[in-house]
């Protein structure tokens, strides 16, 4: 079977994937294949015998006829015989990028031009996505606070972000193309290439996929500590390694300062222990001497001392006892902060009952204590917790001028006004003199007494300080609600690392 040239041409026009358009020397479309129809949205019947510039937006639309005329006159080629990217226009008016290749041919003395068209919209979108992704990646590289270094499988630096420049003192241009070991002191510098080679051949990891602290070297030669994390990055071209670097010089200096502070603190604690010994023996000795001599004066010179003198000697004895008690309480407070808790299971109801029996006389008629049944069993330091409840119960009795002193002890869910959190808290409520809101933050300060003159508020000013310290040692919170002449409620929580509460009572 013989095929004519026209049959072959028609078969090619129909089967070729790219759009094919043939125009004459005036730009009139003579052929328009199916792929061109798919690309432009025109049927061939809609464009045949029309100027090809209907497929072009401005400025190509306006310039096309002039360009074709100039080529025919001068033979100068701008597109013919070459390929280039231009913007075309579909029937819908949508503009799109395409690759255009044009070749000229001559038949029977007439010139024709064959255009090969490829719609590259999807490729351009993909290129834009790649470009956008690269720009985003570069933006991240440029703005991230940590140093980022990318090397290839030979250790050659491919990327070096601004933070890495700031850390090492090199510009990006100074290090690109160099082996990353220029950033390392010995022995890391000598070992690096061997390590990378071993990993490439065996897959054995020492740094990759992990973080560790190593020493690095700045451009100035200064060696400094850094945190290094390395991850492997497989691309379609090659294997890369991304290193994340954080200069931890300041962190290490802070750690050294903390270590030194701890050593100094241990020394201070030892000195405080020595002070405790001195205070408990040497400071008390002159106090006892003063008190003893005052007593001797009263006994040996009773006939010579008037009533006013006796009052003053009694005052001396009282102040000596008070000073001795303050020394004891100060020592107790200092030890309270340093000694570890002895955590054990404790039934709070039993503990509080025991405290009440030791504080209140059995035949006392003016004190009524209501103890709720739902007090929990918890884990705590039993002696300290007993001291906590004892101080609060004694205060509830001492600072109460009512003929009937009522105290209510229980356990409930309550919101702490200091942090707006809700806690399961113990509470001790009284109907005593109350505490002015102005002094709520002061009552836990050591030796702080709110009313120096009132007989009813006499005390050393350390009881509530002990209470707060014991609560804090148990990782708890303490706060109060009080109204003058109506009474006070102390709330507190107790926690331990073992277990906060045991189910049941």
From TrEMBL:
<dbReference type="InterPro" id="IPR004358">
    <property type="entry name" value="Sig_transdc_His_kin-like_C"/>
</dbReference>
<feature type="domain" description="PAC">
    <location>
        <begin position="82"/>
        <end position="132"/>
    </location>
</feature>
<keyword id="KW-0808">Transferase</keyword>
<dbReference type="Pfam" id="PF00989">
    <property type="entry name" value="PAS"/>
</dbReference>
<feature type="coiled-coil region">
    <location>
        <begin position="251"/>
        <end position="307"/>
    </location>
</feature>
<dbReference type="InterPro" id="IPR000700">
    <property type="entry name" value="PAS-assoc_C"/>
</dbReference>
<dbReference type="InterPro" id="IPR005467">
    <property type="entry name" value="His_kinase_dom"/>
</dbReference>
<dbReference type="InterPro" id="IPR052162">
    <property type="entry name" value="Sensor_kinase/Photoreceptor"/>
</dbReference>
<dbReference type="Pfam" id="PF13426">
    <property type="entry name" value="PAS_9"/>
</dbReference>
<keyword id="KW-0175">Coiled coil</keyword>
<dbReference type="InterPro" id="IPR036890">
    <property type="entry name" value="HATPase_C_sf"/>
</dbReference>
<feature type="domain" description="Histidine kinase">
    <location>
        <begin position="278"/>
        <end position="498"/>
    </location>
</feature>
<keyword id="KW-0547">Nucleotide-binding</keyword>
<dbReference type="GO" id="GO:0006355">
    <property type="term" value="P:regulation of DNA-templated transcription"/>
</dbReference>
<dbReference type="GO" id="GO:0005524">
    <property type="term" value="F:ATP binding"/>
</dbReference>
<dbReference type="InterPro" id="IPR001610">
    <property type="entry name" value="PAC"/>
</dbReference>
<dbReference type="InterPro" id="IPR035965">
    <property type="entry name" value="PAS-like_dom_sf"/>
</dbReference>
<dbReference type="InterPro" id="IPR013767">
    <property type="entry name" value="PAS_fold"/>
</dbReference>
<comment type="function">
    <text>Putative oxygen sensor; modulates the activity of FixJ, a transcriptional activator of nitrogen fixation fixK gene. FixL probably acts as a kinase that phosphorylates FixJ.</text>
</comment>
<dbReference type="InterPro" id="IPR000014">
    <property type="entry name" value="PAS"/>
</dbReference>
<dbReference type="Pfam" id="PF00512">
    <property type="entry name" value="HisKA"/>
</dbReference>
<keyword id="KW-0597">Phosphoprotein</keyword>
<protein>
    <recommendedName>
        <fullName>Sensor protein FixL</fullName>
        <ecNumber>2.7.13.3</ecNumber>
    </recommendedName>
</protein>
<dbReference type="GO" id="GO:0000155">
    <property type="term" value="F:phosphorelay sensor kinase activity"/>
</dbReference>
<dbReference type="Pfam" id="PF02518">
    <property type="entry name" value="HATPase_c"/>
</dbReference>
<feature type="domain" description="PAS">
    <location>
        <begin position="5"/>
        <end position="75"/>
    </location>
</feature>
<keyword id="KW-0418">Kinase</keyword>
<keyword id="KW-0067">ATP-binding</keyword>
<dbReference type="InterPro" id="IPR036097">
    <property type="entry name" value="HisK_dim/P_sf"/>
</dbReference>
<dbReference type="InterPro" id="IPR003594">
    <property type="entry name" value="HATPase_dom"/>
</dbReference>
<feature type="domain" description="PAS">
    <location>
        <begin position="133"/>
        <end position="186"/>
    </location>
</feature>
<dbReference type="InterPro" id="IPR003661">
    <property type="entry name" value="HisK_dim/P_dom"/>
</dbReference>
